[in-house]
Give the backbone structure.
Amino acid sequence: MGRLNLISIVLIDSLRNSFSVTLKSYEEGEEGFWEHSLRTAIATKVIAWHLSSGINTDLAYTAGLLHDIGKVIIAEYLEMFSKGDLHRIKFSEMDYLLKQERTLLGTDHTQVGEKMAKKWKFPEIIVNVIRYHHEPADAPPEYKRLVNLVHFGNLMSRIRSDEVEEFNADSFNHTFQESSPQLDGKKIVNWLKIIDQEYQSIFEKLKSILSE
């Protein structure tokens, strides 16, 4: 296990023990949140390795594991709202998630996560992944590649093997059309230089690992 991986796992475990919130304000809940963080870490590492991206795979794993840490704080404040308020918010729809958080709190989990990461003196590249993983087009150029890898890993981690048989840019767009209507697989292809055969190969590898 790489040093970065170990540090990030220790940090996540510390966060889990330090905050008593259940993250029940999010549809995924606490266990779903930690599972998603781990699945995103694995997916981002696999994608980075498969694409020979030039990104250290341990760094890719760490970035994927930490990308949503702002939710740990945000969830505590969301619990102040009534069930009626939260019922109207579809937190599972990724494309609207930031707008929904901002509507209720005036901020979102990426902005809060960025502040947490800076306070804890995370490397700038991790800070920027946390801040821009939902909006990779806005990331500074020097961090865009890793931000796009985590963005892609975040989305790929949500795919269940029984949902898709053949995977390419078109099916990628179709799979996330409801949860991310603004998603454009072609932009990800351009940034990460993915061809259709690689989509399928990455999907098969992740299906094998994440189903274990």
In short: The chain has twelve helices and no strands. The domain at 3-158 is CATH 1.10.3210.10 (Hypothetical protein af1432).
